[in-house]
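Appendix B. One record, verbatim.
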Amino acid sequence: MGDVVGKPGVTAVRTLLPKLIARHSVDLVVANAENSEGGAGISPESAEALLASEVNLLTSGNHFWTKKQILPWVQDNPNLLLRPANYPKGAPGKGHTVIQTPDGRKLGVLNLEGRVNMKPLDNPFTVAPELVAELRKQTPCILVDMHCEATSEKNAMGAHLDGKVSAVVGTHTHVQTADERILPGGTAYITDVGMCGPLDSVIGMKKELSIERFITLRHVPYELAKNLVYLQGVIIDMDDKTGKARSIERIREHLPGT
């Protein structure tokens, strides 16, 4: 699932996800939680609320560090919440892990952050192959969350890892794209899986405040929007033996009453 934005996004996940799991016979769920506390950052409370909603693993991005109270929590729960793997050595938490179904089928998950119009982190294109090789020692099924601004950087990572991982999915922009496909090497790809949060907004925030920023060029504190809340993401079917993707389907579910 795409970036979970504040209380509206958490509520959408809590309400809609169990139904989606049952309807589509979903085995494992991964959600990007980096905006789940107040629209920017993660708290122990927002992380635990999502994990209690049948999410198996949380990923993140550049807002991982916004709420300092998450740092002790992630050190105690390193396999429940990932931060991008290409932060410098010594950063709290970890950037890749393996989760598994009750019957023992494994999924490797790698969290990366892009560099175009973002922080000058370690190069994700050189970090990824080494960590993918490490994950492949345990399972051929690997999901990559590529958290970045530029569509070109996400597309390039999809091509870079095609045939080496099961899926490369983009997060960060909060806008779901319609380019989901299976790449030639068998990797499922989408530029951005979207957002779990209010669509009657500017990427989750009240429209009038964002417009005021663009007009005045002054800092205006953001506030979460509340209306037209959706859960957005993708469902990917993977071959357990080869790790190749069979299909990728976009999901867009409206939270009733919003």
